[in-house]
Amino acid sequence: MFSALLLSWYDAHKRALPFRGTKDPYRIWVSEIMLQQTRTETVAGYYSRFLDRFPDVFALADAPEEDVLKCWEGLGYYSRARNLHKAAKAVTEQYGGKFPADLEKLRALPGVGNYTAAAVASIAFDLPAPAMDGNLTRVLSRFHGIRQDVDIPAVKRRLADLGREDMPDTRCGDFNQALMDLGATVCTPGTPDCEVCPLRPLCNAYHEGDAETLPIKAAAKPPKEIQMAVALITCQGRIWMNQRKETLLKNLWVYHLTENDENRQDMEKAIKALGIRASYTSGLGSARHIFTHRVWNMTLYHYEAASAECREGRFVTLNEMNALPIPTAMKAAKEQAAKLLMPTDAKEGENKA
Ligand code: SF4
């Protein structure tokens, strides 16, 4: 009954999304990885561009990692791109380029968790696996009246079991996508639109009148605020950049970053340790970037180096900088860097305009 009501609603109301209507596991997988932490509207443009550049799993596996990161630039959460690349290599090496029609084997691929494995298995191969994302968790907890913290592992398992029990024998992928659409458009966070919901006759939370309070979640910890100093070190039309080694933003190109910097001394010592002789020129304002668990409060500085000598990183031109994969966290710094590197006559033209 649940699935019949849901699927007939889906047939009439499904969202027209660019990554829908395919059974190709490669395309489904790419879209699901992109959708993990990014809004549907944002993914649409990236998805087409990514597939133009990497039309199949072989093209992705063969590409240098830097190309994959560049194509991902702006989407954030770059570990997704690195894992996508690793998983493409695994699919070509272990399975000859054919995605396995097996939930456990899909889950064993880098970056593929329960949700993504279930989405690919159900949509591409019609396997009965509920893709438990925020939408499914919300709809199922309201429908079945689950009034416990949905982040508790036992409660998560119970919801996934309920999703599996509700799933029809065929159209498993449509079932998951129907729940995603219902969660995104009708059974929304906050106040759901129960009056137009196909599940209303059987919905526990609707009848109990507490849908707005579900799902129950323990309050999330606020992200940690971190003070950062960003030094833009220029030298004769070039700027110093380095590839991050830290897990956060790994392998992306950034300017000189010093964490927990309250004054300029620590940063200047760190610049010197790189073999760069540079003098302070001016402050360039501040910027803020919010990650999932931390916030970078950045103060931007400009330094001019006496020569382009350095033990790590390299000095790049404006064109070279624009070709590198640079994280969105560096957006304000990149804009300032572009102004610093712009030829003087172009700057004058910009000022007049
Ligand atoms: S009736 Fe309301 S609470 Fe229940 S599933 Fe539909 S929209 Fe959600």
The number of distinct structural domains comes to: 2
pLDDT < 50 runs, ≥5 residues:
none
Q: In sequence order, what are the helices and strands, one letter per element?
A: HHHHHHHHHHHHEEEEHEEEHHH
Content-based structural category: alpha+beta
Can you give the helix content as a percent range?
40-55%
Which ligands appear in the coordinates? iron/sulfur cluster
Number of helices: 16
- CATH class of the largest domain equals Mainly Alpha
Oligomer classification: single chain
What is the tally of beta strands? 7
Radius of gyration using CA atoms only: 24 Å
Terminal Cα span: 65 Å
Tell me the name of the CATH homologous superfamily of the largest domain: Hypothetical protein, domain 2
The coarse silhouette is elongated
**CATH topology annotation of the largest domain:** Endonuclease III, domain 1
Q: What portion of residues belong to β-strands?
A: 5-15%
Mean pLDDT: 93
The major beta sheet can be summarized as:
7 strands, mixed
Architecture (CATH level 2) name of the largest domain: Orthogonal Bundle
